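Below is one such record:
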Amino acid sequence: MQVEEISIDVIKPSSPTPSHLRTHQFSLIDQHFPNAHLSVPLFYSSPSPTNTNTNTNTNPQHILTHLKTSLSKTLTLFHPLAGRLNDSHHHHILCNDEGVKFVHARVPHCTLSQVLAPPDHRLNQLFPKQHIAEDQLLGIQLTFFDCGGFAIGVYFSHKIFDARSLCTFVLSWASIAKTGESAVRPRFDSASIFPPIHPPPTYSDLPDFTAQRVLFKVFRFEGSKIELLKAKAKGSGDETPPSRVMAVTALLWTVFAAVMDGEKQNEGAIPRPCQLAMAVSLRGRMRTDSEALNFNENTIGNGAVIPVSPPMAPPRDLTGLPDLVKVLNDMVRRVDESDLVGRRDGAEILKLMDCYAEAAGKPSASDGGDCGFYEVASWLRLPFYEADFGWGKPVWFGYLLGEIKNVISYLDTKCGEGVEAWVWMTEKDMARFQSMPELLQFATPVLNALDH
């Protein structure tokens, strides 16, 4: 796939940011997240008068102009995105309206179906990475395909957005493009809920994974398979069946451990333990009636902590799934019982983050360490599929991390009943992972993202 850039523009807010909003302070949780840029592509089929509901003009130039104009209006609500990180320490954002890079591109001799069969590293070309400096928080690339379909690539800094915040931004932009009005009113007050500390925490001992070749692949768990998996992970008691996140995560924990040990499993060796880190959102976990502390879906910033499990060596035959589900539920319960939002307990957040950094900083078993380490995050129930800019809803969307291994993200299938697991592993580990019978019993590799 060869992407040709046609134009590069800088989109600024349609109205200047008021002087009292010129500084955006990071919250304590924001401070813990690195200034890593992540990528989300939203794919749209070729618009036509029969499948559009607002913008009857389907000319690519009109689509380009309309998206840039609506983005400018959206940036007046999301004013920090048009600003810049203040310095190398990234204490806060200067909301100076310098603007957001917007790249217009096309892919000749390639259709939308071809680029998604299968989804792979080629998707990285749908983002303006090479045009975004370290102090910039957002970049957009609009890429047209020969079939008339197009992709909106959102390239954003984790310093300002988590998955929920990104979804709020995308839906607001889509609403403004489609109707002229935003469906939501974002809030930038997370620092008042979780006050920052100075100096901010640093984790310089985290390993550098960029030297290794990391692949990503997508595996789809259909709704019917998830129901079977939930039944297997329920156990023999009267407990409630696990959620799809817990059931899928318990299965993958077993598969990760098997991948980590590789051929040693066949030699009868004692399996090495494996730890799992799981992002737990704090949104909606309120125990206070104070509106000022209402940390909800419209609060922009990072809203998750990452508890880490004890080291475990799950059995290969899946009989340990109920026990793993219990451990995962205990991790979430610890967060709930800490009441981090209601108590505004920065000390407890620091403790959780320090434990995560310590576990992530150790050499993994695949690198000669004593214990494996994997990280899981859920994007389920985030309505990205509702992002209609006026030419219809997306036919698919995805999430790209970069060169970071042993990370798994869950996205909804388009019907909303299944789960798509985006898995990042080294080339060697991926070869083992994708052939595991325990995995293939419930999941299938996505060979064409448009085959729902």
Observations:
- Residues 204-211 have pLDDT under 50 and may be disordered.
